[in-house]
Amino acid sequence: MTPVRAIIAKELRSAFVSPIVYVVSAVFLLIFGVLSYLAVVNAGSQAVRLMQLQGAAPQLNLNDLVFRPTFYSLAIVLMLVLPLLTMRLFAEERKLKTFELLMTSPVGVHEIVIGKFLGVYAIFLGLLALTGLVPLVLSFYSSFDWNPVLTSYLGLALLGGLFLTTGVLASALTENQIVAAFLSFGLLILVWLLGGVGVVLGDTPAGHLVSYLSFIEHFDRLVRGLVDTKDLVYYACGLVLMLFLAHRVVESQRWK
Amino acid sequence: MIEAHNITKRYGDLTAIERVTFTVAKGEVLAFLGPNGAGKTTTMRILTCFMPATEGTARVAGFDCFEQPVEVKRRIGYLPETPPVYQELTVAEYLTFVGRIKGLGAADLRRGLDRVVERLSLGDVRHRLIANLSRGYRQRVGLAQALLHDPPVLILDEPTVGLDPKQIIEIRELIKSLAGSHTVILSTHILPEATAVCQRVVIINRGRIVAEDTPERLSARLRRSEKISLIVKQPPADLAARLRALPGILNVFEATDSGALLLECALGRDLRDEVARYVVTNGWGLLELKTVSMTLEDVFLHLTQHEEGLAGGSQTQAAVQIEEPRNL
Ligand SMILES: Nc1ncnc2c1ncn2[C@@H]1O[C@H](COP(=O)(O)OP(=O)(O)O)[C@@H](O)[C@H]1O
Ligand SMILES: [Mg+2]
Predict the structure, then answer these.
(1) Which of A98, A100, A256 has its CB closest to that of B86?
(2) Architecture of domain B2-219 in CATH?
């Protein structure tokens, strides 16, 4: 077994004996359930109104009425929930001094960082897969375009990856798990708000740059079913940058 | 096997260790002896590549700790000051994880696991969560972790801290059994521990090496004589001279502050009985009579008092300082 796989296995084991994963999963799935329920009810009442106006059964677009708003809300929920999955990764190792074991074993810091990230990423993908039940069930009762749903899931998977790598970085910066969680909330909300700043700056080069830095517009296109290389590059770069920074931070702690 | 050459480590303004130089031969067990804050952990962290030295070089098994850390790490088993255990895992799960990150294959891992479980008597707790183990068991799990991949070099930071006397003896026996086949450095702040298990002792204080010798020579130097402290109510003027004439007494000093006399006797002779009788029969009034043992603390006081004078001197000189009687 390679060190990275050993670290992934250990992270999964540790995650599932702590209550955090269960609480986070339960809350996350509950919120997702409520969000999709509200979206479906809302779509239903719109359908009734349209029927009264037109007198005939309307062509309802589930993609616009249900999935898109649900996935947008889900992105925000992820921003609040995922830092809780990453907060302990490095903070706890340092607090409990097991960090010394990792750093004196013949594994590279990059392997430790990647192993820890992939461990939580696997948990997150599992959760995301569970949310797939909602479109699956809806597909039995109604027809919709699967394409934007699938690209939305791609978007969520990438967005979640970016949030988790940010969390890994935050956890590497401190010994305190609460501080790590707040640090990643803060970072993510700042990057999110850059979208708003971009809008304020308007159609200027600075405005474009700032908007590009926020994950909003990249997520937005994927949710609308558009797969653009530009957006994929954004996520890839973001992920690699965060992991690289986490690597530097972990490495630098040895020098203090 | 291990060579530290002029290693210095500064944490900001604080110099934790300064120009520490020593070598450990293959198969040797070396004790790093010093009070808390002396720089033992710092030195060990540098040797295990946990952190780089500010200055100087360290080599383990011929590999430079800074240039080839992975090669060094492969050859070292390290028990940090706090056993690096994951509470949420069982002993077997934990050791399996350690084996994997140390790069053991499945078969080696199984064999290594059985070996350390047997050696450290962990059989009963093999499938227990580490969170539920006592301090002594955790320490043993930490040691098992260091021994798991059968490294040629072992670095053990205070391996017997927090253990009960029976466990301490077991661990010391274990370390002794490693001598010859393994190169071991262990740190301790307990002098008898160093002398009990090690072939050589390095005494470190405030980040500097102040003495280095075999335990026999060191303890011989420390205990060249037995010392007795004596307080007499109405001492005759020539009491010191009279005592000196008693058989077995090598020397007599006057302690300036307490008015006590310090009698130095030949090694292995307890003259308290004779001295008491002598004082009482002469009617001088015996107030106090006790043996004075030279504690590690005394040694350090002693060594550090002479620190300035030592700056340019050799370590042999430092060791010689111990021989001189202490001026109470
Ligand atoms: N990470 C650190 N940052 C700042 N100072 C430290 C750090 N680690 C140790 N020190 C200081 O370095 C000195 C030596 O510490 P240490 O090597 O732990 O001693 P020992 O293990 O012999 O008790 C002490 O004064 C300690 O306070
Ligand atoms: Mg220490």
Answers:
(1) A98
(2) 3-Layer(aba) Sandwich (3.40)
- Please work out whether the CB of residue B70 comes within 6 Å of at least one atom of ligand 1: no
* A108 Cβ under 8 Å from any chain B Cβ: yes
pLDDT in tens, A141-185: 888 888 889 999 999 999 999 999 999 999 999 999 999 999 999
Is A255 exposed, middle or buried, given 0-12, 13-18 or 19+ CB atoms closer than 10 A? exposed
Strands B225-232 and B261-266: antiparallel
At CB < 8 Å, which residues of chain B contact A? 11, 45, 48-52, 70, 73-74, 76, 78, 80-82, 84-89, 93, 97-98, 100-103, 106, 145
What do you get for the CA distance between the two ends of chain A, in Å? 32
- Cα separation, A78 vs A70, whole angstroms: 12
- Which residues of chain A have a CB within 8 Å of the CB of B81? 97
ipTM of this model? 0.89
Segment B40-76, tens digit of pLDDT: 999 999 999 999 999 999 999 999 988 899 999 999 9
Mean pLDDT comparison of A225-229, B145-149, B219-223, highest-scoring range: B145-149
Using a CB–CB cutoff of 8 Å, tell me whether A101 touches chain B.
Answer: yes
What are the structure tokens assigned to A166, written together? 């940010």
pLDDT-derived band at B86 (thresholds 50, 70, 90) equals very high
The pTM (predicted TM-score) of the whole model is: 0.82
pLDDT in tens, B261-277: 888 777 777 788 888 88
**pLDDT in the model for residue B240:** 83
Domain locations in chain B? 2-219, 224-291
The reply to whether residue B73 touches residue A106, judged by beta carbons under 8 angstroms, is: yes
Smallest Cβ–Cβ distance between B70 and the set A7, A106, A254 belongs to A106
Q: Which residue of B has its CA nearest to A111?
A: B101
Q: How far apart are CA B186 and CA B172, in angstroms?
A: 11
* CA B82 to centroid of ligand 2, rounded, Å: 9
Query: Helices B91-101 and B106-119, interaxial angle, to 10°?
Result: 130
Q: For residue B81, give the ligand 1 atom closest to its CA.
A: 21
User: Alpha helix (H) ranges present in chain B?
Assistant: 40-47, 69-74, 91-101, 106-119, 135-147, 165-178, 191-197, 215-222, 239-244, 272-281, 296-305, 307-310, 315-323
Q: Is B56's C-beta closer than 6 angstroms to any atom of ligand 1?
A: no
Asked if B283 and B239 count as a contact pair (C-beta separation under 8 A), the reply is no
Residues 6+ apart with CB under 8 A from B280: B286
Domain spans, chain A: 3-21+71-255
Q: Cα–Cα distances in Å, from B145 out to A102, A142, B28, B171?
A: 12, 58, 21, 14
Give A255→chain B minimum CA distance, Å: 6
Please give the CATH topology (third level) of the domain spanning B224-291: Alpha-Beta Plaits (3.30.70)
In this structure, the residue with its CA closest to atom 16 of ligand 1 is B39
